[in-house]
Structure formats: structure tokens, C-alpha cells
Design brief:
Low-confidence stretches: none
Radius of gyration: 13 Å
Strand order of the largest sheet: 1-2-3-4
Distance between the termini: 32 Å
Largest sheet: 4 strands, mixed
Number of helices: 3
Oligomer: single chain
Order of helices and strands: EEHEHEH
Strand content: 15-25%
Number of strands: 4
Structural class: alpha/beta
């Protein structure tokens, strides 16, 4: 059990969930699945935040994480600070229509 993980889950009418995660210490896929479990909503309009995939210890889970995000059909994906270079590039390659490279001042609409 990861006690320091925090997320914001918003269910946007007629769009689905928007999930904002700090670092996803529990795992980005776990954060996604927990948001769906808590709300009963399966559609994911957006996932924004750190996916905690940087560094050699996390590289083995980049592929399964990317596969899970593809399967979830996420409309907008904005990986942040602790996602890591390799994971960001894999996500951008696998989800070219959903991927947004965030920066200071990025505005996302749903």
C-alpha cells in the first residue's frame, strides 16, 4: 500500500474522467484503474501528471504501462516531471493523437 500517492479525479459530463496525478507512486495504471473503480466511469478524457517511470528500475514496466494506456483509450495524455525520457517517447509513439507534451502555461480543454 502506497500512502503518499495523491490524485484528483474529475468526472467531466459527457467526456469522462480527467485524472491529475502527483507522482503515481502506486503506479500510473493503478491510479487509472482506481479512478475508474471509485467513480464507476470507464471513459478517460485525460490523464495528467507524473507516471513515475524514470530510471532503470522502472524501465521494465514502461511497455505494460503504455499498453494499458492504449487499451484505456485515453483522449489526452500529458506526462509530467517523473515520467522519464524513455517513457515519454514510448507514450508519444504509441498515442500520437492523444499525447501532449506539457510545459509551463499549457492549457488543456476537454
Amino acid at each position: 500500500m502506497i500512502w503518499d500517492d495523491q490524485n484528483l479525479i474529475v468526472n467531466v459530463r459527457d467526456k469522462g474522467l480527467v485524472i491529475v496525478s502527483g507522482c503515481s507512486h502506486a503506479g500510473a495504471v493503478n491510479v487509472l484503474l482506481n479512478a475508474q473503480r471509485l467513480t464507476g466511469e470507464t471513459c478517460v478524457a485525460g490523464f495528467i501528471g507524473g507516471f513515475h517511470l524514470t530510471g532503470g528500475i522502472f524501465e521494465p514496466i514502461i511497455g505494460p504501462t503504455v499498453d494499458a494506456f492504449v487499451a484505456a483509450g485515453i483522449d489526452r495524455l500529458l506526462p509530467a516531471h517523473c515520467t522519464g525520457w524513455r517513457a515519454v517517447h514510448e507514450l508519444a509513439r504509441a498515442l500520437p493523437d492523444s499525447f501532449v507534451q506539457p510545459a509551463v502555461g499549457t492549457v488543456v480543454t476537454f
